[in-house]
Amino acid sequence: MTYHPKSDFIRVMVERGFLADCTDLQGLDEAMSKGVVPTYIGYDATAASLHVGHLLNIMMLRWLQKTGHQPITLMGGGTTKVGDPSFRSEERPLLGPEQIDANIGGMQKVFARYLRYDDSPDGALMLNNAEWLDELNYLDFLRDIGRHFSVNRMLSFESVKSRLDREQSLSFLEFNYMILQAYDFLELNRRYGCRLQMGGSDQWGNIINGIDLTRRVLDQEIFGLTSPLLTTSDGKKMGKSQGGAVWLNGDMLSPYEFWQFWRNTTDADVGRFLKLYTELPVEECERLGALDGSEINYAKIRLANEVTTLLHGADAAAAAEATAREVFEKGGIGDDLPTLALSPDEIGEGISIVQLIVRSGLAKSGKEAKRLIADNGARIDDAPLTDAGLMLDAAAFASPVKLSAGKKRHALVTLAS
Q: Where is the motif 'HIGH' region annotated in this sequence (predicted)?
């Protein structure tokens, strides 16, 4: 039987493909049709920027606010000190308080692009779980909270089981993480009336823990909802590119490179990605996704423009499209390409082409750059690059040098003035 949602939010989640599981879909739908439901997603501050893998859940928070509910972005200033063991093969490196705070500052810039933070009933809240976790008394916490957790049950969660099945060490520090995350839901409910936690489907066990704890301690009816873990149609984890993570902060990945990531979407993923990552009507997403032949390229450009506009603004999207057209259609250089500016001292008597390919971000190592050249995948000023021993002197940079890896990745090298 097909479920017909009463609330706008659940309808959007179902229609656009955001919904994987919900602890009580009808109960949550009922609650959302009656009034504002404060909802949180937690983000550990392990890097200075969020990446494309986070974007699905950020869009869920955006739709939540657009349908009249209150999003809570919970920064893991406390839990980052412990590290989430979920589906990892090894312990995360532990970060100090200064690095954690700096990372949170970088992540907040992205949230401000998607959510409205103000004092209205659906105004988003930016919170940090260090607010309550840093003040915990260990013995009180063990007595009041720890007694509600069954170790047998915690060992049965897939995220823990997968580590133990591979006989990989799981420290007591990491084992505590799921208790702390459950406690976050309890505190958010107690302090801010939060009634829903959302996350990727790999967080299901942690979300259930928080719901059970809050029901036992506060006797509150709360909910959990997860989104599918996205893979692209060729089976790769969403958000990974040849150059590494696709960062959302413009100072870590240029708007042009971000635009290009979406422009390179596989044909089979275009319709699905339009529904998840843009606000175009569902019918329009389906129409664009059904285009074939060369017409699908129009849909990919529309996808890239819509997603880039949400994050970096319409001007950045237009500049990226213009640069792409200049580079790909006209064989030009394009003003907005990622650029490496070299000083005369860095060039000296000459600089190797292999070093330039690595420093411009087109390869991760000299070995990878040499392989790119050997496989005929590298070009310089649109001409095939076949000599891995090529050296360029300062005169070569009288005008910008364009380097290419394959057909879709380009960078400029200029002489700093």
A: 45-54
